[in-house]
Structures are given as structure tokens and as C-alpha cells.
Amino acid sequence: MTHDDSGTDEVASRVRDTEPFVRDVDNDAAREFREMLDDQTFTFAPGIYHALDGRLAEMAGHDAIYMSGYSTVLGQFGFPDLEMVTMTEMVENAKRIVEASSLPVVADCDTGYGGVHNVRRAVREYEKAGVAAVHIEDQTSPKRCGHIAGKQIVSREEAEARFSAAVDAKQDEDTVIIARTDAYGSANGDWDEHLERGRIYADAGVDLVWPEMPDPSREDAENYAETIHETHPDLDLAFNYSSSFAWSEEEDPLTFEELGNLGYKYIFITLFGLHSGAHAAYEDFKNLAENDEIGQFDLEDRYLGHETESHHELSFVPRFQDIEAQFDPEAKARQEASAGFTEEGDTVLTSESSDDD
After folding, report:
1. Which residues in the chain belong to E strands, given as ranges?
2. CB 106 within 8 A of CB 90
3. How many alpha carbons fall within 13 Å on the CB side of residue 72?
4. Rounded distance, CA 295 to CA 292, Å?
5. 144 with 82: CB under 8 angstroms?
6. How many CA atoms, within 13 angstroms, populate the side-chain half-sphere of residue 227?
7. H-run or E-run covering 269
8. Mean pLDDT in the chain?
9. Helix (H, G, I), strand (E, B) or coil at 105
């Protein structure tokens, strides 16, 4: 936007630009994510909530990562997913995850954190943090996890304004906007509203529609995709393979490939990283509490020789040591003269390790 020299706004007439919070953003991650959506049957992202999990997902060979809202508020703060964490706290977590991994990051943007201006600012702040995509939902505020009773959706008009504002706010046209509707299973919605909301949001210009489902029904997932594609055949959908559901206990659980063929091009498991980490950590903490040092020995049996063995390597110590030596003439000598991890030395030390090993 250029400055206003009409004289109707004294301040605007004296500045070069009346949108000082807008930046030139070159969203390479978004372009990479879009290419995946176009070229693959489906693109999958495990749900995570901290930087290390993002790096581990990349090491394991995933295409993308999803910063889950519930995982973030529980894993970082210990809260339930009842919109108790602010936009700035969520963006800061996304920034840390983006910096720790080169994978495209999809981030939970809740309801956009307020009115139209809040939605626009949230999209731009997430873009500045480097995320490839954000998803915004049509719940009232304060929102809640889609699988906690009590959710309610805003009017169609307010929802359409929310998503139109999000699309318009993008600083890079490649940034991906995902619209989530919680109409099905909400206090004031139903199945027909679920479908109509998807159509409205697609017409508002969002890139994908995420119809949140209340259970792992194969029939609902198939019906939604087939019905909405009658009017919007090119619409890409997102699917939450939710951790709230016991998929393994379904008689005929949906597969990722089946979902991809239905048009659910982006698939994610919201709390996968949190459930995986919480289960493993609890079992190890319990073993340690009950068996003292045996708990540590048991853990070593699993991680020694594993890709995650060295916390020094996970944190790129060799790279940072090299950088230190490049700028500090005495750093290399200190590293060679002191005990501890080196790139050439043992990853895990024993009493028989030495600087010459």
C-alpha cells in the first residue's frame, strides 16, 4: 500500500507505507509443501510440539511436520486445549521448530486469536516465523479441541470473513491456508452444515478444507469427500487421523493411501509425537523410580548404537565446535586439550575411553 497524500489522514500523508507490519516474505517451505500436495497421493506430517521432535521427524524421513496446538499447550505448558495459550506463544514455538528442521511446517493457528485484524496479524506472524501453512478453525472463542465436548461454531458470515481475511493477509501467495470446520459434532451444527461450510471456505479462497470428524468412521470420510467434490472437484482436503480415536480397534480402518485417493491430500496425526514421547518417558521414569540405576541401564540397552544415541550429535556439536574454532584462535587447542566429546572420539564415554581412542 502506498502512502496516502490526499490530506484526509495527516499521519498517513507523512509516511511512505501505511502497512508497516507487512514484510516481503519468500516462502520456499510453502512452495515445497505445495509441490508435495500436487505430486504425491498424500502428504503426511506427524504432530509434534518441540524442536527436537521436528529434527527427529526429519531424520526418520518424513515429508513435513505439524505443530499441533493440543500438543503445544499440553507439552509446553501442561494446559488442556481450551485456547489458554496466546498467539505470540504459539508463533514462538513454531519459530523454534522451523529453525530446528528443514521440513515444511504446518502450524495450528486456532481461531486466528480474535477478530479480522487478529486473524490477519496471526497469518503474517506465522509467515515471518517461516511456516509453510497454517490452519484456522470456525469455532467460537475460546475454542477447544475438536474432541472435547462443548464446541460451538461461529455464524457462516463471521467464518467466511475470517477465512477471507486470512487469505488476503498472506505476504507470500504460496503460503498455504487450511480452513477447518467443526460443524459436525458441534452444539449448533450438523452434517449438512459441515458440507456447506467446506464449500463456503473453498469459495473464500483457502487452499485446503479440513472437516473435523467426531469419530473414525470410514463412511463419513468417504461421504464427505465424494459429496463436496460434486461441487468442488478440484478441492484438496485435509484429514486428522486423530489420536483421540482407537484406529487399531476399527474393523476396517482407513488407510493413508485410501484417504489420499479420496482427495485428502494432507494427512496428519495431531498428537503422535506427544503420545509417543509421553508413553516412552513415563515407562522409563517408572522403571527408574522402582529400580534405581537399573532404569538407566535398561535405557542404555535401547539407545546405545541407535540413531539417537548421541545428544551431542543431535544438537550438531561438531558444527558448532568448528564455528567456534573458526572465530576463536584458542578454541581448537582447548577442545583438543580437554576431556569430552569430539567428532572423532567416542559418542558415549566409558572409564576406558581416552583422548587417543
Report:
1. 43-48, 65-67, 105-108, 133-137, 176-181, 208-211, 236-240, 264-269
2. no
3. 27
4. 6
5. yes
6. 16
7. strand 264-269
8. 92
9. strand
Q: How far is CA 322 from CA 315, 317, 348, in A?
A: 13, 9, 20
Helices (H), ranges, 61-190: 69-72, 87-100, 116-129, 156-169
- Is the sign of the CA dihedral 72, 75, 76, 77 positive or negative? positive
Instruction: Give the integer Cα–Cα distance in Å for 175 and 27.
Output: 7
Per-residue pLDDT at 353: 60
Which entry of 98, 106, 122, 145 is annotated as an active-site residue?
145
Say if CB 213 and CB 183 are below 8 A apart: no
- Distance (Å, whole) CA 284 – CA 78: 20
Is pLDDT of 264 > 80? yes
What span, in angstroms and rounded, lies between the C-alpha atoms of 176 and 132? 6
| Whole-number Å distance between alpha carbons of 166 and 110 | 12
Contact 139, 164 (CB under 8 A): no
Are 110 and 137 in contact by the 8 Å Cβ rule? The answer is yes
Residue 290 reports pLDDT greater than 60: yes
Selection from 56, 50, 49 nearest residue 70 by Cα: 49
219-234 mean pLDDT: 98
Q: Cα–Cα distance between 191 and 349 in angstroms, integer? A: 60
Residue 357, C-beta contacts closer than 8 angstroms, at least 6 positions apart: 345, 346
Give me the phi and psi of 50, to 5 degrees please.
Answer: -145, 170
Element (H, E) at 88: helix 87-100
Say what the pLDDT of residue 183 is: 96
Q: Is 145 among the catalytic positions?
A: yes
Cα distance between residue 146 and residue 14, in whole Å: 47
DSSP for 211-224, please give it.
Answer: E--SS--HHHHHHH
3-state SS, residue 256: helix
Predicted local confidence at residue 201, as pLDDT: 98
Q: Residue written as cell 517461516?
A: 130
Count of beta carbons in the 10 Å neighbourhood of residue 158 = 13
The cell for 309 is 544415541
For the chain, how big is the Rg over CA atoms in Å? Answer: 24
Q: From CA 335, how far away is CA 318, in angstroms rounded?
A: 11
Is cis: bond before 104, omega within 30 of 0?
Answer: no
